[in-house]
TrEMBL record:
<keyword id="KW-0325">Glycoprotein</keyword>
<feature type="transmembrane region" description="Helical">
    <location>
        <begin position="177"/>
        <end position="196"/>
    </location>
</feature>
<keyword id="KW-0633">Potassium transport</keyword>
<dbReference type="Pfam" id="PF02214">
    <property type="entry name" value="BTB_2"/>
</dbReference>
<feature type="compositionally biased region" description="Acidic residues">
    <location>
        <begin position="119"/>
        <end position="133"/>
    </location>
</feature>
<dbReference type="GO" id="GO:0005251">
    <property type="term" value="F:delayed rectifier potassium channel activity"/>
</dbReference>
<keyword id="KW-0812">Transmembrane</keyword>
<keyword id="KW-0630">Potassium</keyword>
<feature type="transmembrane region" description="Helical">
    <location>
        <begin position="368"/>
        <end position="385"/>
    </location>
</feature>
<keyword id="KW-0966">Cell projection</keyword>
<dbReference type="InterPro" id="IPR000210">
    <property type="entry name" value="BTB/POZ_dom"/>
</dbReference>
<keyword id="KW-0813">Transport</keyword>
<dbReference type="InterPro" id="IPR003974">
    <property type="entry name" value="K_chnl_volt-dep_Kv3"/>
</dbReference>
<keyword id="KW-0597">Phosphoprotein</keyword>
<dbReference type="InterPro" id="IPR003968">
    <property type="entry name" value="K_chnl_volt-dep_Kv"/>
</dbReference>
<keyword id="KW-0472">Membrane</keyword>
<keyword id="KW-1133">Transmembrane helix</keyword>
């Protein structure tokens, strides 16, 4: 080229022309753009001698940010481009993602972090239609119809039914029968919780006056039909848990799940209670009275609803992702409670009666620990009114406490709300995303492609590692050509 030795260089990225100095591109050696300044760049890249420009068929909007990094030494991210897309562009141009500036890092990472945390919200595979060729014809269809494995041997009963039964109880979207099972489970959960609440109502409890050793003993007995209803629910939960344990593909993972542990804990007290109710020994009665107190674990069944409602699963993810914000909230609250409980204790003693040695006869704030409760209630803007300041100095401290509480709680809460909003929108998107029949897969990079470095036998391309990362990320691990 006649302009080959010019200080300026023209790069056409996706149809948008960019003009810069060769010295600018040399500021980051070892990157793809820095090689454009090499003498053999015209043969290794897609160069048009007529317009004297290098062409790259890449995302044009992000290239401006890449080029600006060479000019200013600061790598910023576009707000309107998804983080994973910008990550792929950085890998192509050979720039390390850790060079992204702190102000843009959260924007760059948030999509990928959310994707990693929301793996459990993947849309289930849809049912195969009736006329699916895999079911109606071909070798695979014949094998499925005959319950044969790929190697020709007959599949065992376990291999055929284990995945079906597991899906029936684990994935409500897998089939119409799984939906029925999910509705049944939901019905028994709600029935069990309703029974648990009704058992405490006086209308369903009878008080018997018994005489033991010339002493009147009052015994409260719950109506029998409520126990039978709870028994039916427990039988359903037991069958459900046993089948889930039997057909679970990974037993160790099954017992590590908190929801599965709740399943066991919620049904064990009922069986122990039934077993001990027939015994009359004092020890049995003591254990029985303890088990009646432990009945509250049955309310944990409400957490089983997370299997059926996406919103509850999102809430769980949000709580886990917002641990730092909750910790911050607790620290803020603890500091405020300590400061204002101490202040109200001393403020209430101003102007006390001289004849009162403790200076506490006219106030509820007898000591600082009692003031902790008042400070918590005031800072959370709850205000039960069971304790309140009665002196002008105490009222001033109370007003400051209420204002500080509003500001303290208002600061971390929006971050938690934003987390929930982001997780919920992504979960809904994954639930509603239509299943693509033919996903577009770009053509694999060809040896000698203009967008890829072809050193013509002069050694390995320094960008080979970046290309490996890019291909691995796409899930297509291919051996690189010898020319790379």
């Amino acid at each position: 080229s006649g302009q080959g030795n010019s200080e300026k260089i023209v790069i056409n990225c996706g149809g948008i022309r960019h003009e810069t100095y060769r010295s600018t591109l040399k500021t980051l050696p070892g990157t793809r753009l820095s090689w454009l300044t090499e003498p053999d760049a015209y043969s290794n890249f897609d160069y048009d001698p007529k317009s004297d420009e290098f062409f790259f068929d890449r995302h044009p909007a992000t290239f401006a940010f890449i080029l600006n990094y060479y000019r200013t030494g600061k790598l910023h991210c576009p707000n309107d481009v998804c983080g994973p897309l910008f990550e792929e562009e950085l890998a192509f141009w050979g720039i390390d993602e850790t060079d992204v500036e702190a102000c843009c890092w959260m924007n760059y990472r948030q999509h990928r972090d959310a994707e990693e945390a929301l793996d459990s919200f993947e849309t289930p595979e849809p049912d195969a239609p009736e006329d699916d060729p895999a079911l109606t014809g071909g070798a695979d269809g014949d094998l499925k119809r005959l319950c044969m494995q790929e190697d020709g041997r007959r599949a065992t009963w376990w291999e055929v039914w284990q995945p079906k039964m597991w899906a029936l109880f684990e994935d409500p979207y897998s089939s119409k029968y799984a939906r029925y099972v999910a509705f049944g489970s939901l019905f028994f959960i709600l029935l069990s919780i309703s029974t648990f609440c009704l058992e405490t109502h006086e209308a369903f409890n009878t008080i018997y006056n018994k005489t033991e050793n010339v002493t009147n003993v009052y015994e409260v007995v719950t109506d029998g039909w409520l126990t039978y209803v709870e028994g039916v629910c427990v039988i359903w939960f037991t069958i459900e848990v046993m089948l889930r344990v039997i057909f679970c593909p990974d037993k160790a993972e099954f017992f590590r799940s908190a929801l599965n542990i709740i399943d066991f804990v919620a049904i064990v007290p009922f069986y122990l209670e039934v077993a001990l109710s027939g015994l009359s020994s004092k020890t049995a009665k003591d254990v029985l009275s303890f088990l009646r107190v432990v009945r509250f674990v049955r309310i944990l069944r409400i957490f089983k609803l997370t299997r059926h409602f996406v919103g509850l699963r999102v809430l769980g993810h949000t709580l886990r992702a917002s641990t730092n914000e909750f910790l911050l909230l607790i620290i803020f609250l603890a500091l405020g409670v300590l400061i204002f409980a101490t202040m109200i204790y001393y403020a209430e003693r101003i102007g006390a009666d001289p004849d009162d040695p403790t200076a506490a006869a006219h106030t509820n704030f007898k000591n600082i620990p009692i003031g902790f409760w008042w400070a918590v209630v005031t800072m959370t803007t709850l205000g039960y009114g069971d304790m309140y300041p009665e002196t002008w100095s105490g009222m001033l401290v109370g007003a400051l406490c209420a204002l500080a509480g509003v500001l303290t709680i208002a600061m971390p809460v929006p971050v938690i709300v934003n987390n929930f909003g982001m997780y919920y929108s992504l979960a809904m998107a994954k639930q509603k995303l239509p299943k693509k029949r033919n996903k577009h897969i770009p053509r694999a990079p060809q040896p000698g492609s203009p967008n890829y470095c072809n050193m013509m036998g002069t050694g390995d391309c320094p960008l080979a590692q970046e290309e490996i990362i890019e291909i691995n990320r796409a899930g297509e691990i291919k051996p690189l050509d010898g020319n790379f």
